[in-house]
């Protein structure tokens, strides 16, 4: 279904782009391109003889129109931090990489209106800093914040550990500018709180992984800067107790920023493998939760007092075994380090398969217990466990290799074990991709597990907007062969 | 581009539907159909010889598949309260009406999770009552709440006067079930807080006015029931002062439910024409704002105290001329009656053209002043004014007839004056449809004023998902002729 470019289409394109924009925009030096051909985790190796680095939306539009005329596929790329190979070009060298990194201006900040208009290449931590300098906060954050760019964060509907209060990117995008596959520019930057002019193109582009449009800028919501925060660590009996505690907090306040769950096993690995870590509570507990709550200036009760009050209620109701509130910012950071080091500690302890999945929050405790049990029964010797964002129903479900497994275990077993895990997720009404997207890695699983309605709709939308399959081909959507006559 | 059904396709369809589902589902009695052929405001007259009333999603799917096979267009209908002719069938009688009203079950309420799963035919006020019985609130409300159904509210991304805190339907829909034009069922009801499995079909269906899918059920977010509310009325100098006051409130609290603006002229009309109304403040003011704030149990400061404190700051800063807080629920209702009666009072005072438009909140004060001035200069004798939801940038911009104009003034002038108003809106970066949608009424204006990118994208999405243009034809989207070979 893809229009096959003629073998030298990419070379014609490179020549034309070079002639029009010069070597700063049209890069053909293999050494300069090499770092952008492999994904962040080193799982996918692509090839490309052309790297485009436009500096403006108009340049992006012109390059896209040129590529469309020559039928050259484009792979948009920001910080290249995809966890699913979403920004790696195809291995056959047919596509050009279109990097947005040079488009890194924050065009405008309006702190009173709570709005920033920023280009796709702005790095997340730079936006954090820019907002903070104006007394505002861009509330989304994640591990790759020093590399990940806004265009990629929008295109993957990024989440992270702090989405409870203000949501994922989908909830923070107030406007978008994007270049569509025909080279036309969609200017949807105006932050309209009510706008019912038909299909919401901005929402469609969020999470589309660059397959429908290349995001060039976004209008993003800013919130009041945090005046203070409090971080607590609690030991609980089970994920069910953790959920009941979450409900207790949710009923009492909408200031909850994070609610993370950590099993004893994961905490143990961190304490064993990560230097300078210690358990926050003196006794062992089967499960732990990390709770963060914030306050802006105007709010009355300090977050530490509110957490303490609610934890006390949790203790009374038997939901909490023991708990402590970080007494300092350093201790708060130490609690977070325990949570954030789990993946690293697991890697140090042996091979594991990781799954970024979600189920409805109410279904999560059962899924964590029964899902792990099912995996361990089906694959004797493995141990399975989940940790992560209980508050938003998104856990990282890890299956660890049997003792003595070799380093290739994950590679050889993923084709067997991951589909088994995904089947469990689907049976629980969940999603096989909570926050990392589909990219290359999960494309076939998405095709295997989606309803005919969803699969047909994804392909129909893609074919409607990008009939020649030129935007990020091979990612996310599986295209059906065209019907005869089309 | 539309597949023209054979003249008797609708009759074949009626016979088949009747044979399969009986007369309760396939209604052909003209008297029973008649009430659903005209829009709520009586502006559009349609024709249909068949009204379908399925009772389940499976029945909807089967009817859609049958209609697709016979190429019979379907017009989905809920409470038939569209303000833009969005649910009125075409006048040529080629389409069947598919009413969702019999699908009126609330399938499930989970007060702890803050979730209701309700069918498309559930009437908004019934959902309010059902939620309240469980100590929860569905926070969206609007004038037609006694008739409007959830399917229509989803399909038009309904707003209303109370969207500041929890947003429009788009922000309240946690999951959707819909039948697509090929008869397949999209089951996206699971309330996943993080789900990145490609294009967000739920978000695409919200606001699509039934042109891409027929919404059969929705998972909706519920919030804590209001423990108390406070409503204040303030006199201000200008829309600019009103905006500054809004910012003061927004900076201090996220509990603001409504922030409405009313010009002196509109208040005067209400006091003149609506019985049992009186001005809340003793002296006249050029502009007024109505502010509502709520509190759930757990919050500390009572809303009346918080409003009073913030209004005092507003007085100090010269943003407020005078203000009063409703001393009772009856007085709060009386304040709201002033706001809610403006349209009725205007109708009593003479012909007017109404426009449901939005601009970025920060741009609204200038737009209100300068837009009115521009209209009055261009159309001597008219007077223009705006009132409504300042907090979400959505005002109702009314152009009143010159003195002595006849009752047909609006009909004859709308083709000249409304495009002029819409041009001003577009120049201000706004939307020609803030909350009412496009339907039939604004379809040509949407086509005239949208960017090529937007127009192309809307048509491409529609043609991808509904290639035979069978779902609500003639509404929202203007289809381009197909390219040769397709």
Please give the structural blueprint:
The structure is a homodimer of 486-residue chains.
Chain A: H1 9-21, E1 26-27, H2 30-33, E2 51-52, H3 57-70, E3 74-77, E4 96-99, E5 106-110, E6 115-119, H4 124-132, E7 136-137, H5 150-155, H6 169-172, E8 173-179, E9 185-188, H7 201-205, E10 214-221, E11 223-224, E12 228-236, H8 239-252, E13 256-263, H9 264-273, E14 287-295, H10 303-316, E15 322-325, H11 329-340, H12 342-349, E16 352-358, H13 364-378, E17 383-389, E18 394-400, H14 409-427, H15 443-449, H16 452-465
Summarize the structure.
The structure is a homodimer of 486-residue chains. The first copy, chain A, has 486 residues and is an alpha+beta fold.
Name the features.
homodimer, 486 residues, alpha+beta, Uridine Diphospho-n-acetylenolpyruvylglucosamine Reductase, domain 3, Alpha-Beta Plaits, 5-stranded antiparallel beta sheet, 4-stranded mixed beta sheet, 18 strands
Number of helices of chain A: 16
Low-confidence stretches of chain A: none
Number of strands of chain A: 18
Largest sheet of chain A: 5 strands, antiparallel
The CATH class of the domain at 106-224 in chain A turns out to be Alpha Beta
Known CATH architecture of the domain at 106-224 in chain A: 2-Layer Sandwich
Compute the average pLDDT of chain A. Answer: 94
- Radius of gyration of CA atoms of chain A, rounded to a whole number: 23 Å
Oligomerization category of the chains in this entry:
homodimer
CATH topology of the domain at 106-224 in chain A: Uridine Diphospho-n-acetylenolpyruvylglucosamine Reductase, domain 3
Strands of the widest sheet of chain A, in order across it, are 5-6-10-8-9
Residues in helices of chain A, as a percent range:
25-40%
Beta-strand content estimate of chain A = 15-25%
The two chains with the largest interface, and their residue counts, are: A-B, 86 and 86 residues
Structural class of chain A: alpha+beta
Global geometry of chain A = globular
Distance between the termini of chain A: 10 Å
